[in-house]
Task: inverse folding
DNA sequence: TAAATAAACTAACAACTGTTAGTTTATTGT
DNA sequence: ACAATAAACTAACAGTTGTTAGTTTATTTA
């Protein structure tokens, strides 16, 4: 396995601090202390505080984009696609809880990359809505207002990062099934 | 109707700014500019930046506490109680969208009042869980892991403040029914 | 072993932070 | 008309912010 670079280590520690206090409340001196070095030394590895936030958030946003694309390309019905979407969120939330916290709470501080981030997010939500609408049209999903349904499901999935740390061990498979039960079975025909 | 005091006006404008950028990223000079006065003038009305955040969040947290207490005292079954909880969230989110954003995103910066806030939140979640558990025990609610169910419902309800501003007009009654349909009908026996 | 690189250090900067002190101006109640 | 109050102002503070410059130290490569 490729060893973690010093830069990656800094970004990982930064994500953890951002999760607890938010991007704006974490200073470069806070981050340096957590790394046990001086603030100035951070700049041997990263170019700015902004760049750390961008690295964290954009990588995750692109993971979601790729994952959604694969789901749209897959040969499944709407219910199957929704189950895959739940699995995608569980996977990313499990593997990068801290980064996801930054994405959810601090995306508005992206500056340069804000426009790009919003483009990815809008495309994601647009695909999500398509899955729901097709499911209703093809009589796989009960009729409910599609935007309310998407909002409700996405709220739960986007909040996973808040909830996962409270569980000792997380079985991805099991959690995905529990969430499918709750989020889908109720709307299933 | 009692006219809004200058202090209330400052707190209302602050909540709006906090919603957009987060508590830590909003400076007293930002707030002053939004009020069209100088930063120092704010201190004729409020005692500190911290106090503004506390005023915003604690008031809402106490609204939830009071509302939940009334629901627990009401003469209804578990499904009825869950419907009332949904109504409570819709009501508060509709009436104080900006404040709710601060509560959800910036409660960790409460300092003095942090302990008190967490006490109220824990009590709220404890009651929520009791409703679900009783509902399962009395065969009104399908068996699902109670903590996963609470997490899922609360995620949606706590995210309402993000979603409400996107709708032009919000009919509280109608939204409460749509959400009940999605959040409850699926778990209803 | 010499050279190159990675990664830390000290010192300092200009800008910005929340807040206080003291003062002036406008409005309200008697 | 006068006194009291509400609400703004200017000026300044001490501390913190992200970041740069220049240097030293340790490790790796040729």
Result:
């Amino acid at each position: 396995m490729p060893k973690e670079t010093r830069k990656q280590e800094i970004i990982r520690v930064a994500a953890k601090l951002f999760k607890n206090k938010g991007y704006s409340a974490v200073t470069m001196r806070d981050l340096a202390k957590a790394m046990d070095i001086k603030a100035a030394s951070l700049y041997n590895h990263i170019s700015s505080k902004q760049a750390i936030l961008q690295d964290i958030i954009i990588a995750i946003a692109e993971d979601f984009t790729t994952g959604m694309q694969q789901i749209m390309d897959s040969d499944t019905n709407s219910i199957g696609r929704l189950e895959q979407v739940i699995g995608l969120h569980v996977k990313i939330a499990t593997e990068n809880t801290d980064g996801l916290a930054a994405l959810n709470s601090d995306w508005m501080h992206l500056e340069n990359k804000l426009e790009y981030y919003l483009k990815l997010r809008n495309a994601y939500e647009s695909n999500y809505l398509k899955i729901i609408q097709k499911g209703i049209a093809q009589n796989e999903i009960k009729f409910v207002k599609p935007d309310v349904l998407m909002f409700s499901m996405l709220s739960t999935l986007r909040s996973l990062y808040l909830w996962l740390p409270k569980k000792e061990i997380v079985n991805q498979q099991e959690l995905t099934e529990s969430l499918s039960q709750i989020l889908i079975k109720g709307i299933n025909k």
Summary: The two ends of chain B are 46 Å apart (CA to CA). Residues 6, 37-38, 40-41, 44-45 of chain B lie near DNA strand D (CB under 10 Å from a C1').
